[in-house]
Amino acid sequence: MVFIIVFYLSIIYLVFFKFHLLPWNKVTQAVSLVVGIIIVTGFLVGLRNLAPASTQAATTTQIVEIAAQVSGRINSVPAERNVTVEQGAILFTIDPTAYQARVDDLTARLDLSRLRLGQFEELAEASAGSQFQLQQSQAEVRAARRRSLPWHNSIWTTPLCAHRFAAKCHDCS
Fold first, then answer.
1. Are 65 and 139 in contact (CB under 8 A)?
2. 3-class SS at 21?
3. How far apart are CA 42 and CA 53, in angstroms?
4. Are residues 78 and 161 in the same domain?
5. Are residues 112 and 152 in the same domain?
6. Minimum mean pLDDT among 21-30, 48-57, 70-79: which range?
7. Domain span at 13
8. How confident is the model at residue 76 (pLDDT cuts 50, 70, 90)?
9. pTM of the entire predicted model
10. 3-state helix, strand and coil shares in percent for the chain, rounded to the nearest 5
11. What does the alpha-carbon distance between residue 131 and residue 121 come to, in Å, rounded to a whole number?
12. What pLDDT, in 10s, does the model give residues 47-67?
């Protein structure tokens, strides 16, 4: 709006004062004023028709963006945009194939570490193995258990719910 008024006044300055294309008298002053009013009125009418407003309604809402805490391919998104989500509602499901492969890999590594630990324990009992190898094997089992535990309890095993935007929890069942 201000841009249009400044642009119009610039044109008037150039036509009447800078280049003296027309004389600045009462007739041209009146015509310039009427044309300016018509332009501003046309802009306001166009603005009202192109961007309608209502004094009858007011909305306030809290919008929250939701993202998974894991990466992966999304299978489905049952939750709709701009719709209130109730507690316990499933927001989206993620394809578990990659996560299942990771769990299988970590489980196999944990099983292998446990098997080696058993072998080193037998060797230590028979005084055929070193204490260092036994302690190292015990540490490997603890490390493998720590690596695999988050994957076994991860949120991919259950659908995500709207309760605190986390995995489906005990409160939602």
1. no
2. coil
3. 17
4. yes
5. yes
6. 48-57
7. 2-50
8. confident
9. 0.41
10. 60, 5, 35
11. 9
12. 777 776 667 776 676 777 777
d(CA 115, CA 142): 13
> Looking at the chain, how many residues does it have?
173
Helix axes 131-152, 97-125, angle to 10 degrees: 160
For 75, phi then psi, to 5°, come to: -80, -45
Domain check: are 87 and 44 in the same one? Answer: no
Distance, CA of 5 to CA of 89 (rounded, Å): 53
Q: Which residue has the higher pLDDT, 14 or 96?
A: 14
- Whether residue 94 lies inside any domain: the answer is yes
Q: Provide φ and ψ at 78, rounded to 5°.
A: -70, -25
Q: How far apart are CA 71 and CA 90, in angstroms?
A: 17
User: Which tokens hold the place of 149?
Assistant: 């535990």
Q: How far apart are CA 72 and CA 96, in angstroms?
A: 8
The per-residue pLDDT for range 119-164, each reduced to its tens digit, is 888 888 887 777 888 788 888 888 888 877 665 555 444 444 444 4
